[in-house]
User: Which sequence fits this backbone?
C-alpha cells in the first residue's frame, strides 16, 4: 500500500532523512521508534507532503502511485492521514465545522456532492461515541484551550471521521494519561481493518501494549537501523537505544 | 439563498470584482464642478422647500472654508472637487412608479447585484430602498410598513412629505460643520433613505438600502436619516457596490441615527465598493460620517463588514447621551492589494451607567494598510460608564500592515475601560494542518478568516451573514502566494 524507497529529505539544506526504505501492506501496523532527533516526525511530515521539507532523493508510492507531485490535500483525499504531535489551534472554527469542511472537500475531490446534514450528524454521533467524546466538545474552537489529552483524542476522532487508508500517528501517546490512552488505543483498534494500515511513531513501548504492531523499526540518524517483530520494542524498552547507536556507529 | 461550493469555485476562478459591470441607462447628469449655483440647482431639481435650500447653502459656505483632514493613516491623491459631477440620475426613475414600470435595464442591474425587488424579498422579510447614483429608484413594501405607521422612503420624498421630521433631525447628530466631508455631503446630498419608526413599534421586517454608483465621473453623496421613536425597534441593512473603473470615484455619505428613550437600532453595513484593481488603479474613495445619538435606555449597534473601496475613512460612532444607554460597534475590515482603510468608532459616554462594546477585526493582505482608530470618551458626569474594546488584527503575507490607534479619555474616576488587542498571522502550520485534512489552501484561509471574524459575523442578520462570508472569501482570493 505504501512503498518508501531510498527516501532522502532535508530542511534548510540540512539532511534529516538519509535513505529510508519501508514497505507497508494493507492490514499491517508498523511502529517506528527511535531517539529524539532521529527523524521520526520528519518522516511523518514528508509522507503527508509538508512542503517545508525537500525530498532530495527517492520516492514514496501510495497504492502504486508516485506521490512526488501530489499536494498535501490531494494526499489526504487519497487516504493519507497524519495525527499531529502538536495539533494547531484554529480560533473560531468549531471541531464540527472543521470536520464538515474536510469531509466535503474530500468528497468534492471524488466528484461527490456534499454529505447531507443528516448523514453528517449521524457520522459525528457514531464516531464521537467510539472515542467517548462529549458532544459539547465538538462545538468548541478547534484545539483552542484543549488539554494535551483532548487534542490527541480529537486527532483520533478526525481519523475516525475521515477513514484513511494510511494513518500515521505521531506520538499520539504523549500527553495522555492511562485512561485516555486506553480510549484512544481502543478507538484505533476498532478503526483498523484489512484494508488500511497504521504507522505508530512513538518513544515508548507503552502504546504498543494496546495497539500491537506487526513490525517495529528503529530509526537513527535518518535511517532505519533495525527492524523486527513486536518483541523488538520490548528489547528497546529494556536496553534503551544506546546499544543500537553503538552497533550502527561502526 | 443557497450558495454552493461550485458557485464559489466559479467565482474564485473569475475572481475579478464581480460587481464591476456598468449598466447603460440613459441618465440625467449635471456638468462637473461645485458652486452655489450647483447647490441651488440640485435643490431645485429635487423640488425642495426653501429651508432645505438655505440649509444646503449654509453647508456649502462652511465647506468652502474647510480643509480636507490629513490625520488619517491613508495616502491618496486628493480628489479634484471641481471635476466631479454632483448629480446623476437614471432618466426613467420616478419614485411614484410601481416596480412594473421600472426600466427593464435597471431591473436587470438589480438582478446582477443579487437584489430581488419582488415577492421573494417579502418572504425574506426585507423591505428595500435602492439608490442608483444620486436618486432612489425603488422602495418596496411602503404599504405594509405604512400600516404600522413606519415611514420608509427616499429622503428626497421625506423632505417634501414629512418636513417637520426632517427639519427637526437632519444635522442634529452630524452638523454641517462636523467635518469636511460631512459639510460637502450636507451641501450636495442627492438622495438616501429616510426612516421613522413610531413609538412602541417593532419594525416587522429588515429595512434595507442598496447603494450603487453607476455613472462615470460622478460622486455619490447619500444621506440617511433614521429615527426610532420611544421604545421602538428596527434592524437596518445597507449594501454598496460600484462598477470597476480606472478612475477614483468619491463617495461621501452621512448617516444619522436617532434612538429616542428605550429605542433600539441595529444598523448593518456590507460595504463592497470597487476596491481598485490589483495594481492599485481606480477604486472608490469612501469618506463617510456615521453617528448615532442614544437617549435614555436606548441602544444602537453598528455592525460593518468592509471589504471594498480603495481608501476608507469611516468611524460609525455613538453619543451615549441618555442614562443607561448602550452603544456597540462590531467591525470586520478587510484590505487586500493596495487598499487602505482607516476605520473604527467613537463612543462618547455622557449619561450615567452608559455602556459600550467595541469588537474590531482587521484583516490585511497583499500590500494593503489596515488601521483601527477608536476613541472612548467618558464625560465627567458619566458615573458608572463602562467600555470593553477588543481589536484583533490578522496579517497575511509580509507586505501588508495593521495599525491600532486607540484613544481613551476618561474624566470620571468611576469609569471602567478595558482594551484588549491581538495581532496574529495565518501560520504555515495552520495551513498545513488544514491541507492535511484535505482542505485546499484557499479554503483553509477562508475557514481561518471566518473563524477569526466569527464574533462579528454572528451579529449580522442571517441573510447578510451568508453574503458577508462569501465576500470575505472573494476579497482575499489570491492573497497567499
Assistant:
Amino acid at each position: 500500500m505504501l512503498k518508501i524507497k531510498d527516501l532522502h529529505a532535508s530542511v534548510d539544506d540540512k539532511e534529516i532523512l538519509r535513505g529510508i526504505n519501508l514497505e507497508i501492506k494493507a492490514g499491517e501496523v508498523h511502529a517506528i521508534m527511535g531517539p529524539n532527533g532521529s527523524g521520526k516526525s520528519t518522516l511523518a511530515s514528508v509522507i503527508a507532503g509538508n512542503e517545508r521539507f525537500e525530498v532530495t532523493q527517492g520516492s514514496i508510492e501510495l497504492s502504486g502511485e508516485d506521490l512526488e507531485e501530489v499536494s498535501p490535500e490531494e494526499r489526504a483525499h487519497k487516504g493519507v492521514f497524519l495525527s499531529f504531535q502538536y495539533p494547531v489551534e484554529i480560533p473560531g472554527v468549531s471541531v464540527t465545522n472543521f470536520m464538515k469542511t474536510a469531509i466535503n472537500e474530500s468528497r468534492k475531490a471524488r466528484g461527490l456532492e456534499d454529505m447531507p446534514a443528516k448523514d453528517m450528524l449521524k457520522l459525528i454521533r457514531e464516531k464521537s461515541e467510539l472515542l467517548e467524546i462529549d458532544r459539547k466538545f465538538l462545538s468548541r474552537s478547534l484545539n483552542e484551550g484543549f488539554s494535551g489529552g483532548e487534542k490527541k483524542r480529537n486527532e483520533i476522532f478526525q481519523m475516525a471521521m475521515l477513514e484513511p487508508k494510511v494513518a500515521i500517528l505521531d506520538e499520539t501517546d504523549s500527553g495522555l494519561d492511562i485512561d485516555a490512552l486506553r480510549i484512544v488505543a481502543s478507538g484505533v483498534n476498532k478503526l483498523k481493518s484489512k484494508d488500511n494500515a497504521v504507522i505508530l511513531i512513538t518513544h515508548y513501548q507503552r502504546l504498543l501494549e494496546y495497539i500491537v504492531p506487526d513490525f517495529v523499526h528503529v530509526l537513527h540518524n535518518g535511517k532505519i537501523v533495525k527492524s523486527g517483530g513486536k518483541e523488538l520494542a520490548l528489547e528497546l524498552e529494556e536496553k534503551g537505544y544506546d546499544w543500537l547507536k553503538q552497533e550502527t556507529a561502526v | 439563498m443557497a450558495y454552493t461550493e461550485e458557485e464559489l469555485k466559479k467565482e474564485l476562478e473569475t475572481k475579478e470584482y464581480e460587481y464591476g459591470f456598468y449598466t447603460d441607462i440613459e441618465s440625467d447628469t449635471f456638468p462637473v464642478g461645485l458652486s452655489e449655483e450647483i447647490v441651488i440647482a440640485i435643490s431645485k431639481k429635487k423640488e425642495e422647500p426653501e429651508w432645505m435650500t438655505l440649509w444646503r447653502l449654509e453647508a456649502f459656505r462652511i465647506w468652502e472654508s474647510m480643509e480636507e483632514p490629513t490625520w488619517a493613516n491613508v495616502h491618496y491623491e486628493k480628489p479634484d472637487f471641481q471635476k466631479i459631477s454632483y448629480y446623476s440620475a437614471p432618466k426613467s426613475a420616478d419614485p411614484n412608479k410601481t416596480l412594473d414600470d421600472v426600466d427593464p435595464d435597471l431591473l436587470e442591474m438589480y438582478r446582477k447585484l443579487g437584489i430581488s425587488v419582488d415577492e421573494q424579498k417579502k418572504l425574506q422579510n426585507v423591505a428595500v430602498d435602492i439608490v442608483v447614483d444620486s436618486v432612489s429608484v425603488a422602495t418596496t413594501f411602503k404599504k405594509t410598513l405604512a400600516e404600522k405607521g413606519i415611514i420608509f422612503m427616499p429622503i428626497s420624498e421625506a423632505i417634501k412629505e414629512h418636513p417637520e421630521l426632517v427639519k427637526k433631525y437632519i444635522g442634529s447628530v452630524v452638523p454641517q460643520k462636523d467635518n469636511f466631508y460631512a459639510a460637502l455631503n450636507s451641501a450636495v446630498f442627492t438622495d438616501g433613505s429616510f426612516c421613522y419608526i413610531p413609538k412602541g413599534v417593532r419594525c416587522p421586517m429588515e429595512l434595507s438600502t442598496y447603494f450603487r454608483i453607476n455613472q462615470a465621473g460622478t460622486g455619490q453623496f447619500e444621506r440617511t436619516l433614521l429615527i426610532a421613536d420611544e421604545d421602538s425597534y428596527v434592524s437596518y441593512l445597507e449594501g454598496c457596490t460600484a462598477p470597476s473603473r480606472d478612475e477614483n470615484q468619491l463617495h461621501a455619505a452621512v448617516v444619522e441615527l436617532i434612538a429616542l428613550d428605550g429605542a433600539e437600532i441595529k444598523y448593518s453595513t456590507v460595504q463592497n465598493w470597487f476596491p481598485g484593481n490589483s495594481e492599485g488603479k481606480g477604486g472608490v474613495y469612501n469618506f463617510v460620517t456615521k453617528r448615532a445619538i442614544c437617549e435614555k435606555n436606548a441602544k444602537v449597534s453598528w455592525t460593518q463588514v468592509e471589504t471594498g473601496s480603495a481608501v476608507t475613512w469611516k468611524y460609525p460612532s455613538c453619543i451615549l447621551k441618555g442614562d443607561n444607554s448602550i452603544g456597540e460597534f462590531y467591525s470586520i475590515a478587510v484590505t487586500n492589494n493596495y487598499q487602505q482603510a482607516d476605520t473604527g468608532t467613537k463612543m462618547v459616554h455622557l449619561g450615567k451607567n452608559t455602556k459600550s462594546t467595541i469588537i474590531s477585526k482587521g484583516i490585511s493582505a497583499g500590500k494593503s494598510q489596515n488601521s483601527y482608530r477608536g476613541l472612548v470618551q467618558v464625560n465627567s458626569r458619566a458615573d458608572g460608564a463602562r467600555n470593553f474594546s477588543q481589536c484583533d488584527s490578522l496579517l497575511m503575507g509580509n507586505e501588508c500592515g495593521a495599525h491600532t490607534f486607540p484613544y481613551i479619555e476618561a474624566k470620571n474616576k468611576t469609569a471602567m475601560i478595558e482594551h484588549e488587542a491581538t495581532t496574529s498571522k495565518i501560520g504555515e502550520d495552520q495551513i498545513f494542518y488544514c491541507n492535511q485534512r484535505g482542505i485546499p489552501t484557499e479554503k483553509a484561509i477562508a475557514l481561518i478568516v471566518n473563524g477569526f471574524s466569527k464574533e462579528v459575523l454572528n451579529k449580522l442578520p442571517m441573510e447578510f451573514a451568508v453574503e458577508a462570508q462569501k465576500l470575505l472569501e472573494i476579497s482575499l482570493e489570491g492573497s497567499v502566494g
Residues 5-475 of chain B form one domain. Residues 1-5, 8-15, 92-99, 115-125 of chain B have pLDDT under 50 and may be disordered.
